[in-house]
Amino acid sequence: MLVKVRKRSEEFDKAKLKSSLKKAGAKEYHARKVADKIAGKVKNGTKTVEIWEWVIAELKPLDPKAAKAYRTYRAKMKKKPKR
């Protein structure tokens, strides 16, 4: 059986994170606060799953509804078939 694994590196984009938080329903100032905090934690080699966990941990106390929407969206993205 042949299994292909794709791994790619991508620069962390604070604006992209902020945008996805706003799409999840977070208010502008909550999205900015979380994105700023996460940007300070990200180092070379940080895994996407770590960033997702940090985002949920930071957003949940500020806006539980947006945190749930973000988590649900990310869960769907993980299940999405790769092309």
- Count the beta strands: 0
* Helix and strand element order: HHHH
Strand portion = under 5%
- Number of helical stretches of at least 4 residues: 4
Class computed from helices, strands and strand pairing: mainly alpha
Q: Would you give an account of this structure?
A:
The protein is mostly helical and 83 residues long. It has one domain (14-79). The chain has helices at 14-23, 28-41, 48-62, 64-79. The longest helix is centred in the last third of the chain and has 16 residues, at 64-79. The protein starts with 13 loop residues before the first helix and ends with a helix. Residues 1-5 have low confidence and may be disordered.
Labels describing this entry:
4 helices; disordered N terminus; mainly alpha; globular; 83 residues
Write the layout of secondary structure elements.
Layout: H1 14-23, H2 28-41, H3 48-62, H4 64-79
Summarize the structure.
With 83 residues, this protein is mostly helical. The chain contains 4 helices and no strands.
